[in-house]
Hints:
Structural class: alpha/beta
CATH topology of the largest domain: Aspartate Aminotransferase, domain 2
Number of helices: 13
Shape: globular
Bound molecules: pyridoxal-5'-phosphate
Helix content: 40-55%
Amino acid sequence: MLNFCVGPVMSSAEVLEVGGQQIPYFRTPEFSKVMLENEKLVLNFAHAPKDARVVFLTGSGSAAMEAAVMNTLSQEDKAIVVNGGSFGARFEKLLEIHKIPHDTIRLEAGHALRREHLEPYDGKGYTAFLINVDETSTGILYDMDLVAEFAKRNGWFVIADTVSAFLTDPFDMEKWGVGVMLTGSQKALACAPGISLLVLAKSALERIDRIDPACMYLNLKDALVNMERGQTPFTPAVGTLLQIHARLKQIERDGGAEEEVRKAARMAAYFRSKIAGLPFETFAETPANGVTSLRVKEGYDAYKLFEAIKDHYGIWICPNGGALKNTVFRIGHMGDLHEKDYDVLVDALKDALEHGYGKE
Ligand SMILES: *Cc1c(COP(=O)(O)O)cnc(C)c1O
């Protein structure tokens, strides 16, 4: 199988092997040790500030998004949310459901966040800022230096969704003063789905202490107490956590988060250079390393191309949903993918186009 989707992605042989094992009982010192090592490695790779802590939730990335909103924001907040695609829309929906007062910076799909989008909120008493660092639905990477500049000046509590940005683009929680960073197991972590995690800075821990969410399963107070000894309140996706352990150790051994980021950048550049001349154009103004989103030229249908590549070549590229379904598709640069895999993909794309597949 060759999978260029943006999650789940291709896992390494080592991670796959862990996935093939029986699942052990987990209320043990051995499993606690695994969890505490996972925490330590994540803190390191995220450049978390001193005193930051990690919790692992059983649930996909959206569970961590919801947990962040419920446990660190309240009706006393006045939040700003960036909505430039379906994951920004998800944050906005969560703020609505949990009745957090907020305003939305609505960006056209694929467009960058600029100073002029933030200026109207400067010095206006806002308290929190939510952003998907890589808005995976369009492949746009937002400018976190710019966000951090405004956030620091205004004291905004920043919630950064790095589900597809962690380990693919540089992320420095301390430098950017981020309060919550969150990610999931099936994107650049390249494990089975099922686990999401939150890295919580001191500012987040203080908020969690103060706020009582009307929810048992996603209550981070309980999760934090349990995590002091490397445990979780409820049975976690043990198998996925063991895969994450193998993967984090592998990253550590291979040169750390920076090396992962370099690899994603290299894969993205390689693929982007190889498709010159094909009837596609880059869709995102400032593309993330984790994903290339491509708009098909006149006469082509992105969804039909996705189907043709799946049916005739057994390769998964990533279709888009909603308004972009027929015009945009995505190619991931996360997980265990190499130059030779992109060679196979580009040959398949060329062959498909020659056969007239993917025409409107
Ligand atoms: C994948 C993703 C999520 C979470 O999606 P799940 O399907 O819940 O794992 C959240 N934010 C971004 C930016 C993502 O790419």
